[in-house]
Amino acid sequence: MSAGSGVKVKVQKFGNFLSSMILPNIGAFIAWGLITALFIPTGWLPNKALAELVDPTVTYLLPILIGYSGGKLVFDHRGGVVGAIATAGVIIGTDIPMFLGAMIMGPLGGYVIKKFDKMVEGKIKTGFEMLVDNFSAGILGALLAILAFLGVGPVVDAVSAALASGVEWLVGEGLLPLASLFIEPGKVLFLNNAINHGVLTPIAVEQARQYGSSVLFLLEANPGPGLGILLAYSFFGKGNAKKSAPGAAIIHFFGGIHEIYFPYILMKPLLFVATIAAGMSGIFTLVTLKGGLVGPASPGSFIAMLAVTPKSFGSFAANIAAVCVATIVSFAIGSLILKTDKAGNENLEEATRKMESMKGKKSRVSGVLTDSKTLDPQAVKKIVFACDAGMGSSAMGASLLRKKVKAAGLAINVTNTAVSSIPSDAQIVVTQSELTPRAKEKAPDAYHVSVDNFLSSPSYDLLINQLSKGEKAEPEAAEESSVAPFVDGDILRKENVFINQSFKSKEEVIRFAGQKLVEGGYVKPSYVEGMIARDRLMSTYMGNGIAIPHGTEEVKKEVLASGIVIIQIPDSVDFDGNKVRLVFGIAGKNNSHLEILSKIAVACSDVINVGEMVRAQSVDELITVINHAVAQNA
């Protein structure tokens, strides 16, 4: 990774962290905005009694929610509680909404209690855990609240005043439109939520409280720049970009999902000029006509914007004019660029993948942009579940999907394989989202489904619903058969089931599982590094508190025989932000492990079963839970 890209990633992570404190609470911001718009003396339905809700909501509720969210980001619910207590200290004694203070004290509270818990980990005597947990949170929260009240609050108060004065100076000097030089490119770098909700919203709320509305709410949320780009592609684009642009424009303008137009800019970066000029024009119009909103328009939909526009003809006229002007400017410049640019490199799918890479996760709207294959339910006879090595996650996923297919009475064969070995006759390919691009290269004519949670993905049921629209086969008569015992004499031995284990990191537990596979004679020692590499390449977390570490395809040759080890971790271990309490270390050879792995998948697909396994006090009890779950689903 280059230094530049490293800095970009760090900036994105910091921006995402800031916005992650605000976004979960946008509903509360909208509620405050609607109450303000309706019940203040100049609102739509003036009501002196209900208007009393405005100040307490913005002064206490919103900052405490932000502080809780910030603490929770750092250290889950416990961090959120301490972050909320610390935020209370920064709120009290000030006259302004302490959003910036909450964004400092919330994460700080989470960080402090996280460090304390790590410091005393393993040192608390049995029976005193709850006492220490509760009093440590209360004492540290109280100390942080006092620190916030005496030190942080006055500093943040001064900083907030300085920022507000800076914004007023920019408005007074006519320089506010220059903000588009940073806002419009920042959107495509996925700093839009950080810019809007992490920086502009806190200042805008204070302005709206003082003056009734704020123009800052619309600097980033104006849908005009993106709408103009999409309209330009609708008229002057080529191929799938032109075909998909009208639908994308509707989603963007009325749905408020701005990220849908980012790939269109990434195809032709010169279009940044159009969005920057449009953003400047829109801001200039807002400032000139004195537009603004009483609360955040999130998502940035035209409908959401109208909902939080103050009750006056002038405000509506100014806001609508700003959107129209930005759209016209963006369309005009974008059309000129598209008409004169002869590069002809309008690969929307590639631009969408680039956008998702920059975003760090799958886009909610990528299906609208890419030329996805259509699904003919009646023609489907084969579903292939693929993973990197074809021995672990794909086997579990295929087992669950096979069960759902059978329950739906569908005559469809479900198999699993490595992504590099997807057969040419695969009609539907199911993969982890990070593997989908590779799967599409291997099977370009197949219908592709991406999943993140292998054990309880909603994508399974959505796929079954789609397939069920075709003709169903008659369900096969159930055969009477006894359920085979879970523990196999060779693949899974009782001595390879480990109860009440504790680990500090996922690498530690993966190495433990790998070493037990080595000691059991299942794999060569070099297989363990392949297990570490596989998890670094793509998380082996499966959902429901389960992880199944196994080797990469490259180290399959190091497998001597199929084997499975089970590790119970009641206090959990972190797998990329997910709490894992059961680990199944896997080595597969000639698919002889798939029957047992299928039973594991069935048992672990129900979180109640997982909870019973985690609480099991002996190897026999854990095995009994799995056998019972398998028998119920047989």
Automatic annotation (TrEMBL):
Residues 381-475 form the PTS EIIB type-2 domain. It is found in: Cell inner membrane. The keyword Transmembrane helix applies. It is an enzyme of class 2 (transferase). PANTHER family: MANNITOL PERMEASE IIC COMPONENT, PTS SYSTEM MANNITOL-SPECIFIC EIICBA COMPONENT. Homodimer. It is a multi-pass membrane protein. It comes from Sporolactobacillus terrae. Residues 490-629 form the PTS EIIA type-2 domain. It catalyses: D-mannitol(out) + N(pros)-phospho-L-histidyl-[protein] = D-mannitol 1-phosphate(in) + L-histidyl-[protein]. InterPro entries: PTrfase/Anion_transptr (IPR016152), PTS_EIIA_type-2_dom (IPR002178), PTS_EIIB-like_sf (IPR036095), PTS_EIIB_2 (IPR013011), PTS_EIIB_2/3 (IPR003501), PTS_EIIB_mannitol (IPR029503), PTS_EIIC (IPR003352), PTS_EIIC_2 (IPR013014). Residues 14-355 form the PTS EIIC type-2 domain. The phosphoenolpyruvate-dependent sugar phosphotransferase system (sugar PTS), a major carbohydrate active transport system, catalyzes the phosphorylation of incoming sugar substrates concomitantly with their translocation across the cell membrane. The enzyme II CmtAB PTS system is involved in D-mannitol transport. Its main location: membrane. Keywords: Cell inner membrane, Cell membrane, Kinase, Membrane, Phosphoprotein, Phosphotransferase system, Sugar transport, Transferase, Transmembrane, Transmembrane helix, Transport. Pfam families: PTS_EIIA_2, PTS_EIIC, PTS_IIB. This is Mannitol-specific phosphotransferase enzyme IIA component.
